[in-house]
Amino acid sequence: MVRLFGYALVVVLSSLPALAAEPGVKVWTEKVAGSDVPYSVAEGVVDAPASVVWSIVSDCNNYKTTMTNILSSQELSRSGNDVVCKVTADLPFPLPDLTSQTKAVHTIDVDKSYLRKWSLVEGDYHINEGSWTVVAIDATHCKASYRLRVQPKMPVPDSLLTTFQNTAMPKVINNIRAQSAKKLAAAAK
After folding, report:
1. Number of domains forming the structure of the chain
2. Strands 98-109 and 141-152: what pairing?
3. Enclosing domain of residue 16
4. Cα-atom radius of gyration of the chain, to the nearest Å?
């Protein structure tokens, strides 16, 4: 079974474009002490106010349209700055889709910095944690950082999972850029 999923993931990965295909996005991994599962990190400047980017990354009800590779998403509850979301990731064939329920804590310093940090409650993962950090550079630009650490319950070699994450990560930042531009254009009408 491990070989089947490993082979399938190799086929999928070989069809994906290289990391360098997304200009202006930095991507790296960060080791986690005591674990073989690192954080994958992507960071880039977005030509939009931090509040606009925050309105996108903090709204899990719309992740299906605002994030890449999301099949469905729903905010299950909100209490103050604590938000519980259910998200299903749309993995390429022949891999199964993966669903998780996560609890996020939102920390906001209006028009300066925003943080959405989540951890796994339950789902198809052993590990699913990460964060969005949005920091204002000036009134019309911000830096968006996306950190993700996942380990699905299905058997996938860690090295292949890390390669998949690092290939998809730059696309997430560029998608946030595109969604921000759409919001700004709609607001200007």
Report:
1. 1
2. unpaired
3. 2-53+104-188
4. 16
